[in-house]
Amino acid sequence: MKRRNFFRSLAVGGASAVLSPIIKAAPAPGLVQATVKPATNISDAVTIPRNSSSMPGKYPGKVVKTDHANCIADGKPYEPAAYEMVKTCMLNLTGETDLTKAWLQFVTPDDMIGIKVNPIGGRLLSTSHAITRSVVKQLVDAGIPKNRLIIWDRRQEGLEDADFNETNYPGITFMSTECYDDNKSYINSEGRFYSEDWIDKSHYFFADVEGEYDEYTLPYMVNGGKYSYFSKICTEKVTKIINVPVLKNAGTSITVCMKNLAFGSLTNTGRLHKDLWHETSAYACAFPPLRDKVVLNIVDGILGCFEGGPSANPQYICQYKTVLAGSDPVAVDRICYDIVMAKRMEEAVQSEEKKADRRFMELAGELQLGVADKDRIELIELKV
């Protein structure tokens, strides 16, 4: 099979083609990792001056958690309830009584706003349309033009499999790093990946670990070697990012705010899971494309999972019936961690917490990206 046709067949294969190589390259955290960690360029990130939008944002250490008993109908998130949950979070996070004023604390009509979803769970367990539409509607009602909104993820096929498209979101732009053409070929007429035009080689995360991939996996990594490049979506296309992950486990840890950002914005990530999962989740967020642009995190916890994450395994999907919000991704992750751990204990998947599984939050706290100490987090819990 010719190389061009081979990568076209991968796209046509659907979700299983997307998930298989990534799962193979991405063992869950919590396994024994190297005592001596590979060298990285995190020291470069900490020398770059911050700006007024830099993490942890306007409300360090503040998290709003809103529950709704009737937010699921026919097994799916119920949009009117999701809207009220997001609204309640926004008003209580900001202290505003006017929803428009709440949103305009974070974004303006002049911003290009990237809404970072997590579509890896396909139709079963991706960022729900109930939450995404609620975010979009509230932004538009706050005066943000639709043509200033971009729904994005690293993987085009993931967005399509989860039904993130113009039919469901008229007037909204969709972008992805790992993309293909109308014939679903990843390779252009010059024999290069289309995705190579979507990576910014002036913004990168270096780690002294070699990425080596077979032809099946390479389209989902973009490049091998020791450099992971940031997507131009982050570096050039957007001025602000609203992070909308799903409440999921990742082994005995979680994959929520920081993991969605870090591994969703970089290339060549397969090499980073084994020994640098925690470091990458924190360190990538310390670089300007994420640190200085992610202004808000809204966690879709209406449906989530307690085992088998980040993939969608039906037997482990559960109804958390909650939404969390904060400008501080570390604090939000810390609260999400407790929610998932409690469910894992309840389901007897895990008997006790492993402190090492919070390592990425502690690293992020040391980098001043947010508050990892639960005793210093202001948690507001509400019911609607």
Describe this structure in words.
- The chain has 384 residues and is α/β, with parallel strands linked by helices.
- Helix content is 32%, strand content 21%.
- The chain contains 13 helices and 16 strands.
- The strands form five sheets. The chain has an eight-stranded mixed β-sheet with strand order 6-5-4-9-12-15-1-16, with helices on both faces. A two-stranded antiparallel ribbon has the order 2-3.
- The relative contact order is 0.19.
Tell me briefly what this model is.
With 384 residues, the chain is α/β, with parallel strands linked by helices. 32% of the residues lie in helices and 21% in strands. The chain is globular.
Helix content: 25-40%
User: What structural class results from the helix and strand content?
Assistant: alpha/beta
- Across the major sheet, the strand order is 6-5-4-9-12-15-1-16
Unreliable segments of 5+ consecutive residues: 1-20
Task: Sketch the topology as an H/E string, one letter per element.
Answer: HHHEEEHHEHEHEEEHEEEHHHEEEEHHE
End-to-end Cα distance, whole Å, is 56 Å
General shape:
globular
Distinct helical segment count:
13
Main sheet summary: 8 strands, mixed
Mind telling me the C-alpha Rg? 19 Å
Total strand count, please? 16
Amount of beta strand: 15-25%
How confident is the prediction overall: mean pLDDT? 93
Which properties best describe this structure?
13 helices; 384 residues; single chain
